[in-house]
Amino acid sequence: TQLLEQSPQFLSIQEGENLTVYCNSSSVFSSLQWYRQEPGEGPVLLVTVVTGGEVKKLKRLTFQFGDARKDSSLHITAAQPGDTGLYLCAAHGAGSYQLTFGKGTKLSVIP
Amino acid sequence: DAGITQSPRHKVTETGTPVTLRCHQTENHRYMYWYRQDPGHGLRLIHYSYGVKDTDKGEVSDGYSVSRSKTEDFLLTLESATSSQTSVYFCAIMPDRGAEAFFGQGTRLTVV
After folding, report:
1. Structure confidence at residue A55 as a pLDDT band (50, 70, 90)
2. Which residues of chain B are within 8 Å of residue A43 when distances are taken between CB atoms?
3. How many beta-carbon contacts under 8 Å exist across A and B?
4. Which residues make beta-bridge pairs with A22?
5. Is A95 exposed, middle or buried (CB count within 10 Å of its CB: 0-12, 13-18, 19+)?
6. Rounded CA separation B89/B9 (Å)
7. pLDDT, tens digit (0-9, with 9 covering 90-100), for B35-92
8. Residue B1 has pLDDT above 70, yes or no
9. For position B111, what pLDDT does the model report?
10. A109: phi then psi, degrees, rounded to nearest 5
């Protein structure tokens, strides 16, 4: 089982600030996903990245897949209190049906 | 919303008793997963299924068993609950490998 390491584990910022969270592994992935989870709810998919070097934008969120397809980042511009939540990266192992998650980054955006 | 329902939503049980959690889907998705979520550990995979009667272990399978006798239902059983199994359990479904995973609302299990 590949290990997905997310950093930072916790992040508390003021509204309007920018932030980046990271998801790293020593394994190569065919694709990587980012999910967001709110308290009391299950995770919800934000994006799937497939191609090395790929950049996807979702409003103020920018997702990047590393060239070697081993790592990914999520950048939020001008964070808002509604961005508060747990951000999780996830990936399938090579040839595996397992969907493994990182430990997540817990983001708090203070008004 | 994807049609996925977990039951029960909350349960308190005593150490040593058997417990079964149910995940029911109406999407006819092939893949189903059981995770547990604990502070500091994120989502950890317990067991998963890639078809009817096709299941395999995840990273934290000890003390748990699963069954999938039909496409729509995936059952997670704690044969003899222990306090270390107190957690929030999530079921997820997925149509294809690499596709979006849809999660249930979770089951909060407390073993006393």
Report:
1. very high
2. 43, 90, 101, 103
3. 61
4. A7, A73
5. exposed
6. 9
7. 999 988 889 999 999 999 999 999 999 999 999 999 999 999 999 999 999 999 999 9
8. no
9. 98
10. -110, 115
When scoring B89, B97, B107 by the number of chain A Cβ atoms within 10 A, the one with the most, hence best to mutate, is B97
Q: Which of A72, A36, A29 is nearest to A54 (CA)?
A: A72
Separation in Å, CA B38 to CA A83, B81, B86, B89:
22, 16, 9, 9
B44, B101, B105 member nearest A41 (Cβ): B105
All residues of chain B having their beta carbon less than 8 Å from the beta carbon of residue A98 are: 45, 48, 56, 58
Question: Is residue A17 predicted with pLDDT exceeding 90?
Answer: yes
How much is the pLDDT for A80?
97
Q: How near does any CA of chain B get to the CA of A52, in Å? A: 15
**Looking at the partner chain, which of B42, B48, B102 has a beta carbon nearest the beta carbon of A88?**
B42
